[in-house]
Every structure is written in structure tokens, then in C-alpha cells.
Amino acid sequence: MFANLRLLIRYRPLIQSLAVRELKARYRGSLLGFFWSFVNPLLLLLIYSFVFTVVLPGTRPEGYEPYALFMLCGLLPWTWFSSSLLESSNALITGGNLIKKVLFPAEILPITTVLANLAHFCLGLPILAVFLIYYGTTVSFFELLWFPIIVVVQLLLTLGLAFIVSALTVYFRDVRDLLMNLLTLWFFLTPIIYPASMAPPWAQTILNLNPFTHLAISYQEVLFRPGPFHEVWRLAIVGGISVLAFLIGYFIFDRLRDTLADEI
In this predicted structure, what is the pLDDT of residue 234? Predict the structure, then answer.
């Protein structure tokens, strides 16, 4: 397993070219092209803001203003996470012609998917920066240093889960449909549209068992709340979980790789 992991370093140019190709293919034929990377998070934010401001005005949490900025801090990373898993679940099937080539490492396909969605996440950051400037929110340089660390932790977690769902979907095509519903539940079990403090006591345990809870709170702590970063322990816990998820995910993928081509 570790020998195959080391070999991935040699495939960096291939991973990069496939990720660029996937980004171009996603918006090929559209009028706005890559501009959708900026529009999509903005539209998503406007929809949620409309719901919680106009339709359900009494449900907005007190002390979390500007609420739109609070939501965006969690929505952007969640979109990267959920889109990566959904697309990875079908990555090996759609790339079956590549997998059947003897020297092509199959794990490159879910890696490419996750990195392409990471690029979309990065393209959505200017929208977040505009909101930070608009609301006059100041983020100190030292707080911002935690941001790339949080991104790397999320990347490891996402890659590990992407390996698992991409391999399992080859054998069980129902995984994608189950995953769609699981991600919907997972979203509402993560403090993105509400602060973790609003959850009842019995739900706090569930939230704390959710690794994305700690990621969402870390993003909110760095970008939304002024002051020093207090969530080091959360980030350390989810960092350990992410490394473990990556290793387990790649181990499962590596054990199944020899039969993937036959099952596609």
C-alpha cells in the first residue's frame, strides 16, 4: 500500500492535467464558463439567506450577525466536501476505459475529482473575501495562518472517503443513491446553518462525533469570529481522524484495485 502511495508522486503531472481537463469539461458549452464557480456559492448563499430572513425570520440565531457571512464560512467547504464524494462515487465507472489500461493507477480518478472540487472551493473564496470586506470583518494574519491547515485536514478526510465510495460503487451501484441521502442528513447534522450551541444537549454528542463539525467550527472561528484561534484541540482531533480515514480509505481501495476493471 505504501509503495503505491509513493508512486503517486510520480503521477503529479497526470493528476494535474486530468484535474484541469475535468474543470474545463464541467463548463464546456456554458455561456458563463468558470464564472459559475463564483455564481454558484453566491446563489446558494442567497437562497439560504432568503429562507432564514424572509420565510423563517424567527429562526436566525442571535449573536451570529452577519448571518450570511456565518453561513458562507461553512457552506463553501461543505460544497467542496459533498460534491467531491458524490462525483467520486461515479469516477471509476465513467473512467472505466482508463482503468482497463494496465499501467493506469485507478486511484488517480477520485484524487482528480477531489482536487477539481478543491479548485472550485478556491475560486469561491473571493466571494467570501468580498463579504468579509463588505461587513467590515477583520481577520488577523496569525488567525489566517490556520486556514491552509484546515484545508489540508479536510483534503485528507475527503480523499479517504472518496477512495472508499469510488471503489464500493463499482461493486454496489446503490452506493451513490444512498450517499446522496446520507449527505443531506450529514449536512443538517453539521453546524453550518446554525451554531453548534443551538443544538439541544442530547444532540451535542452526535455533533461532536461528526468530524465535519470540527472543520466547520474551525472555519467559522478563523473567518467569522474575531480574536485568537481557540479550536486547536478540535483541529487536532479531526486531523488525526482525517489521517486515519485517508489510510483506511486507501487500504480498502488498494485491496480492491485488482478486480475493479472486471466489475466495471
Answer: 85
